[in-house]
What does this fold into?
Amino acid sequence: MTVEVVAAVAAVVLALVGLVGIVFPVLPGSILVGAGALAWALWGGSSWGWVAFGVAAFLLVVGATSSLLLTGRSLQKRQIPKWPVTVGIVLGIVGMLLLPGFGLPIGFALGLLLAEWYRMRDFRQAVATCWETIKALGLGILVEFGCAMVATSVLAVSIVTAW
It folds into this structure.
């Protein structure tokens, strides 16, 4: 097996694991997609690898930044403080350890709901705020995932056209 083949396989695996890491935020998804593009640029043996890396890096930075800005702006607009989200993240991590696979989203939603219920002292309003927060986070994940998908597609085209 040549270095180019190993680089291509590593790049594809890193990119695919990164895409999963964006949807299930256990792994640093955008960073892994970028690492895959960098691996291809360094060891792929094609000058198009560096072009693909540059385009992918730009898209990944735009996606991650947009995700953070959209989510933060949406939460700020609805006057949702950061500490209920932090409680949700902590319980999401606990849920991930207790129920691998599905524990992270369940734990996050439950932790967020409990924190909002404690903060507002009204269950219906806590459910509404929790739902708005989950929608804001979902929009951020969707934007970041879309940019990472385009970056992965650019990487795939670069790999396929190198042979």
